[in-house]
C-alpha cells in the first residue's frame, strides 16, 4: 500500500507503538513535488529582496491612501498632512506617533493604552480646502454665475473637536453644518456662533414642534438657518410656529427624485425612498405657502440619491433632474436661491477607482464638482433662470481620511495537525472502516496519477467520514488527530496554500468598526510598520469579544485573509516589539455607530498636528478611552457601590482567614496592608480601560506565610487614569482615597 511521507507526534501514537528511526519519513509514492512559483510558494521559499515599495503595492496604499498616506523608506506608514502640498520634512511617521502616545511616562510617552484613534486636523483642513477648490475651479472654468458653499452633516462624526475644526477651517468660504435631530441642531447652533455668519445651518430630519421652534430661534440668533421639509405635514407646524414667534423662516424641500443607484447606499433614494416629497406634494407646498403669503420663504431645494455615488454619469442624471424641479419652482413664483445636492461624494476604500462596487468611485473631487456645475448650468441656461448657489452635504468625503484607528495584534494561532511515522500511518489505516479505507486508497491513487483536485476531494471525504465515525464512537481521538495530520500533509504535498492564521487583536469590532459587522463595509487595514519586510503569513483578525461575529475575515481587493508578518505568542516578533495594525478611512460614522458590546468602550483618542519639531508633529490633545466604570455606568450600574461591595467582601474573607489561624499583631499589620492592596487594585480595575494592557497597572502578588496569603499591589508605569492631571475628570476625585 502506498504510504504518505509523515512523522508522528507522541500525542497521537497509540500505546505500544514507537517512533521509526531517523526522521521517520518515506516517499509519497508517485506524487511529484508541487511546482514552486512566486505566486504559490510559501514566503520562506522566495528569496527576492523585499522593499517598502512592494508593500505599498501589496496593500494598495497608493490607491486608497493618496495623497495622505504612503510607505516611507523605514517601512512605516507616513502621513502627508497637507496632501499633495506636503513637503518632505512635514511628513509624519505614524509609528512615532503611536510610540509617543503609548510609551510609559517614565520614558517621555503619554502612557495611553491602545486601541487608539489618531485625529489629524491638518488632513481635515486639506479635505475642506480641496473640496472648495474643486468647485471654485469648476465654477470659474464653466462661467457659472453663482458660488458654492457646503455644509458638513454632523451625523458623520459629532465629536466636538471635529465639528469645531470644520467650522473654523471652513469659515473663510462660508462652510456650514447640517443637523438631523434636536441634539445635533443644538450642537450646530452653538458651533456656528463662532463661524461665518453667512454659513448655512441646514435642518434635515423628522421634526416636531420643539425641533422647528429651535430652528426658528436659530434664525433669531442671526444664524443662516434653513428648515428643510422631509414630510408635507411639517409645513403646517412651520407656518403656525413662525407666525406665533413672529420669525420669518427660510424653507427648503427635500425632493424625492426618480434617479437612484442600485448599490447598498442607494436604498434611500428613488420614488420609494424613505425621505422626501413627491412632485405632487411639492406642488401642494407651493400652493399652501402662496395662500398664507409665505411663498418668498421657499428658497432651497434639496435631494439625496444615496451615499457613495459610483459615477459622474449617475450624479449628472440626479443633479439634472433636480435642476429641472428647481427651475419649475422658479416658474411657480418661489424665491429660489439654493440647490442642495445632498451627500453622495464618495471615497475610494479599496484603491480600485471603479464605479462597479460600493467600495470605490470612478472619479475625483474635480470631476465630481465639474459634473455638478455642468448639469445645473445646462438646465438653468436653457430655462433662462439665474444660477443657484450650490450646496452639498459631503460628510464621508470630508472626515474619512483624517482619522486612523491603531490597534495591536497580541498573538497569532494556526490550526496545525501533528505529523505521522509510517508505523502510526499503518495503525491509522488498520483502524478505519472499509468505506474510509476505500477513501484513503482512492486519495493516494489520485495523488499518484497527478489528479490533485480529485485527491483533495477524497481527502475531504475521508476526513468527514472519520468525523462521523468519531461521533458514533467507532474511532478514538487518536484516529481523529491522525486524519487531520494526514489531510494537512496531503494538501502541503500537492501545493495547497499554507493555513490561514488567526491574529488576536486588542479591539472590539462592534465598538470600533461597526459597519463591518453591520453592513459588510470594508476598510483598508494594514500593518503600520515592518513594511520593509516580506509578510510571512496570511491571517484573519479576531477581536476580544465573546462573539463569533467579532472577527474581520474580508478585506479590500476581495481577499479573505490579509498578508501579515510573523509574531510570537506575546505579539513581539523578531525583536520588533508590539505589532501594530491600522484601519484607515474610518473617520465617518464608525465612532457614532459603535456600541458597548461585551462592555468594551471606545478607544483612546489623540489629536496630532504637523509641526516644525524634530519629529514633525505635536500631540495637541490626548484622552483615554472610557474606563470600566464609564461603560458600566452606561448600563445604569453604579461603580462606586460595586466597589464598596467587593471591598467589603474582601475584608470579610481576610477576617475569616485570620480568625481561623489566630492572628498576631504582625499578622494584623499584614492583613491591613492586604486589605489596602486589594482595595487599590479593585479601584484601578474600575478606572482602567476594558482592553488588554501591555503591562498590568495593578497586579496582585501572593506571598505565603503562616497566616495565609498576603497581597501586595505592584504599580507599573502604564497609564494611570486617576493620576493623570492632563486628562483626569472630576469623577476621579471621589476615587482618590482608595487609589495608591
Evaluate the radius of gyration: 32 Å
Query: How would a crystallographer describe the biggest sheet?
Result: 10 strands, mixed
Number of strands: 23
Provide mean pLDDT, rounded.
84
- Structural class designation: alpha/beta
Strand content: 5-15%
Family: Belongs to the Orn/Lys/Arg decarboxylase class-II family. SpeA subfamily.
InterPro entries: Ala_racemase/Decarboxylase_C, Arg_decrbxlase, De-COase2_CS, De-COase2_N, De-COase2_pyr-phos_BS, Orn/DAP/Arg_de-COase, PLP-binding_barrel
Protein name: Arginine decarboxylase
Pfam families: Orn_Arg_deC_N
Topology at a glance:
Blueprint: H1 52-58, H2 61-64, E1 69-71, E2 77-79, E3 92-93, H3 94-102, E4 116-119, H4 121-142, E5 151-153, H5 160-170, E6 176-179, H6 182-192, E7 200-203, H7 209-220, E8 224-229, H8 234-245, E9 251-254, H9 279-291, E10 298-302, H10 312-331, E11 338-340, H11 365-383, E12 389-391, H12 396-399, E13 403-413, H13 422-430, H14 434-448, H15 452-471, H16 477-493, E14 501-505, H17 509-512, H18 514-519, E15 525-527, E16 537-542, E17 551-552, E18 562-564, E19 579-583, H19 590-593, E20 604-610, E21 617-623, H20 628-634, H21 639-661, H22 665-687, E22 699-705, E23 708-714
Parallel strand pairs: 4-20, 5-6, 6-7, 7-8, 8-9, 9-10, 10-11, 11-12, 14-16
Antiparallel strand pairs: 1-2, 2-3, 4-13, 13-14, 13-19, 15-19, 16-17, 16-18, 20-21, 22-23
Helix pairs in contact: 4-5, 4-11, 6-7, 7-8, 10-11, 14-15, 15-16, 21-22
